[in-house]
Amino acid sequence: MTAPAMVAEFDDVAAWTADAVAQLGAEHAIPAACRGSASPAALAWLAEACELAPGTRLLDVGAGAGGPAAWAARRFGVRPVLLDPMPAACRAAARMFGLPVVLASGTRIPLRAGSMDAAWCLGVLCTVADKAGLLREVHRVLRPGASLGLLVVVAHDPRAPAVPDGNLFPTQAELSDLLDEAGFDLVEQIDRPGDAPLSWSRRAARVAEVVATRHRADRAYALAARQSESFTRLFDSGQISMQLIHAVRRWAALTRAEET
Ligand SMILES: C[S@@+](CC[C@H](N)C(=O)[O-])C[C@H]1O[C@@H](n2cnc3c(N)ncnc32)[C@H](O)[C@@H]1O
């Protein structure tokens, strides 16, 4: 079951974001709709690592309000498909960017096997209990040799820190095993991809101000704000960190599960 704080953070705030963008102007949409904390530098690293190009069929699993996929469409000419289980987030993404959106969980992706050229999954794995199931599904819908770009928040202490509601951070070792078992080779991994420039963060901040002004009294706003404060505390204390990963779907892809 999805924690109420996650519904607030991913669904309610997504809808409010689309409303605020409608008031402020479309140039605010992409920075405000990157809810997995990816900066332009992080997105560029992932796009280059995955060798995105005009026409690439990019599946964004857990696309949220759609900022990263819209950025990839605009900067790299990809043809994105957005997938998210939160209805208001899907509506917000469709409204702000007019991109194809699928309302579904990443653990049951309603797409044909081998139908996508690349996938992104940004800030999603730590919100999903069945990480192995999600990665297996992403593996199934990717063509052999396709790239997977991940932004993952990892825990540095295997004893889980006091996490924000609903989050289950993998450790680095768990993450590496999960990728391997799902049939992915980890090609490269970095942290500290670089901060967003002011031109970007100012637009995101303006949207956040409008959302705060309109919804500060809502219970969902308080829940989402508490989530975000917990994240900041965990990052600041060094208990968790953000990792960018480029992995590739193995060709002769017998997963460990298939081998047994
Ligand atoms: C931190 S947000 C990141 C959104 C987006 N990837 C971005 O970077 O802006 C995490 C997203 O994961 C989605 N999510 C949660 N459970 C999921 C699942 N089982 N399958 C796919 N997405 C899921 C949430 O609805 C939310 O939109």
What does this entry look like structurally?
With 260 residues, the protein is of the alpha/beta class. It has a single domain, classed as Vaccinia Virus protein VP39 (Rossmann fold). The chain contains ten helices and seven strands. A seven-stranded mixed sheet has the order 3-2-1-4-5-7-6, sandwiched between helices. α1 runs parallel beside α5 (87-97). The chain is globular, with a radius of gyration of 17 Å. The mean pLDDT is 93. S-adenosylmethionine (SAM) binds next to α4.
- Look at the helices and sheets and give the structural class: alpha/beta
Give the end-to-end Cα distance, rounded to a whole number of Å: 30 Å
Tell me about the largest β-sheet: 7 strands, mixed
Helix fraction bin = 40-55%
Strand content: 15-25%
Low-confidence stretches: none
Rg, Å, rounded: 17 Å
H/E element order? HHHEHEHEEHEHEHHEH
Descriptive keywords:
260 residues; alpha/beta; Rossmann fold; seven-stranded mixed beta sheet; 10 helices; globular; binds S-adenosylmethionine; Class I SAM-dependent methyltransferase; S-adenosylmethionine-dependent methyltransferase activity; Methyltransf_11; SAM-dependent_MTases_sf
Describe the structure concisely for a colleague.
This protein has 260 residues and is α/β, with parallel strands linked by helices. Helices cover 45% and strands 20% of the residues. The protein contains 10 helices and 7 strands.
